[in-house]
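Re: [help] complex structure
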Amino acid sequence: KNQVEQSPQSLIILEGKNCTLQCNYTVSPFSNLRWYKQDTGRGPVSLTIMTFSENTKSNGRYTATLDADTKQSSLHITASQLSDSASYICVARRGYSSASKIIFGSGTRLSIRP
Amino acid sequence: SAVISQKPSRDICQRGTSLTIQCQVDSQVTMMFWYRQQPGQSLTLIATANQGSEATYESGFVIDKFPISRPNLTFSTLTVSNMSPEDSSIYLCSVETTTSGGFSYNEQFFGPGTRLTVL
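Output below.
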């Protein structure tokens, strides 16, 4: 079954601390994986996109890793800020053609406390 | 990249009425998608709208309830018909583009969403 599972469901950390969000996927054939940030009441915004040949990709304080062998990805946030409070959604793409499908994880809701 | 705008950004509607949501993209795109996101849930694909053909609906969604128009490569509308409180959701428009370079891949961009509340 093609699915994407994220953990934890929710997370609360203090401002300035680091955190890591996890994503496990069982999608085949696997094309790419993306992490999105979604602020409350807004549409998702892409943070990173990784293909099967990429292990690490950074976007400012966000660093995503991908292990295509274990089918796991993580999103590490460094020196968290209050503005990082949002839902983070892991999305895996199955297939390569225009008929390919994207599979959404249920998201991790991150709250940063001052 | 693609910049997407949606109208309205939010609305409160009465049961039994219909609402049409507009989606405008700043570039021509072949594939446009409409999603629904119910409170606390992830995104669920309603339908795929390609210009020049009828929209393709996912399981659980029908054209009579969610008619879609796609008159050109930069615009689409989704209508939520005969609304009930269960239709209260965020509705998101999305487009897909293909990047170029050493390794091309499909990238998906999302609009800001339309927050619909049905009383």
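DSSP finds no helices and eleven strands in chain B.
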